[in-house]
Amino acid sequence: MLDALTLVIGVAALLLAAWCGWAAYRDEPTKDWHFIGMGVVSLLVLVQLVVGIVQLARGEKPEQGTTIFVAYLLGAFACVPAAGLMSLSERSKWGSVTAAAGAVVLAVLEVRLYDIWGG
User: Fold this and answer.
1) Would you say 1 and 51 are in contact if contact means Cβ atoms under 8 Å apart?
2) Residues 6+ apart with CB under 8 A from 50
């Protein structure tokens, strides 16, 4: 895996979590700018998913097993979009809390992906 990409995604996820958390603190729902941020983070995770699959196709193996690695890659890819969709259904500060929680979960998944690959 690309360590730099994993680090960038983790930092971006934490920044998104802080931004959405700030909106929740101010009793604001998620706004268009938050969804643009979620889109950027999701795009980064899509790049990571493609890179991970390409590395597996080239014969590289994660230290803790291919199945668990692919499962974490797919979970990381689905995490922020799922939280974004849930935040759309709750147009209050709790939508912002949901988006922030999804971003924190993504950051934790990135740490775990790094560990699974053998970092």
Assistant:
1) yes
2) none
* CA R_g for the chain: 15
**8 with 44: CB under 8 angstroms?**
yes
Distance CA 54, CA 47 (A): 11
Tokens 């974490």, located at residue: 72
Give pLDDT tens digits for 41-88: 999 999 999 999 999 999 999 998 899 999 999 999 999 999 999 999
The answer to whether the beta carbons of residues 112 and 72 sit under 8 Å apart is yes
Q: Do 67 and 116 contact (CB within 8 A), yes or no?
A: no
Query: What is the rounded CA–CA span in Å between residue 54 and residue 32?
Result: 33
Dist. CA 23–CA 32, nearest whole Å? 12
